[in-house]
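User: I'm curious whether this sequence folds into something compact or stays loose and floppy. Could you predict its structure so I can see for myself?
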Amino acid sequence: MRIGRIAGGHLVADDGSGFRKLPYDIDLPAVMAGRPLDATEPVEDPDLIAPLIPGKILGIGLNYLDTIREMGLPKPTEPFLFAKFPSSVIGPGEPIRIDPELTRRVDWETELAIVIGRRASRVSPGEALEYVFGYTGANDVSARDLQASDGQWVRGKSLDTFCPLGPVIVTRDEIPDPQALRLRTWVNGEKVQDGTTRDMLFGIVELISYCSAHFTLVPGDVILTGTPHGCGDFMTPPRHLRPGDLVETEAEGIGRLANPVTAIAT
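Assistant: Here's the prediction. I'll summarize afterward.
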């Protein structure tokens, strides 16, 4: 099933026959808990917003070998974790807003995002997928100059609008092999990333197990799983997002996010 949100936070669901509104008293935690989904009237071409605002967002850096090589960094021996603030989340069509007084090296990163559906603490890799509600797409927008100057990644990853999510959550049963999904990015119509989740250094079950060993995961938490090669900051010459650009990110089986880039007036 594909689950999205429309203006006002109202949930819509598509079981293959088109989007329908869910009852007003159904929210995402209720869906995750298995409450029956008695959809109501059809919704043609819903104007989707971010499918959820996570309780916490855990990012995984350096999780694709080609990306590690293009960044010129050593291969990690365990997942490289960082936090991304929920206040950075936007949805389809919303602008990525750049403040030129803060950053001039804004980069794109298409990623598969895991949506946790059950409380998870110290779970084994063998049982990890049982804690997944579904998957969505993400653009882990990154201010590379802030990452470099800070020596850690929270500020450069968490600026407002720097986490487009969506367009929908696809439930786990609809994606039997999350390690076989194509990830692509276009900037102004030019394809700049084209990779596959099979190239992850640490797979989805390992990431869930690792994260849950350190902090309890709760329904609605999101894990961003890393990006394949093709980020602009590591091109020759480097490329960065600028006001007027359109960045599109796509996770196979989930859909495409399109976000214009605008400037914050200073």
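Summary: Residues 113 and 224 are 5 Å apart (CA to CA). Residues 1-49 form one domain.
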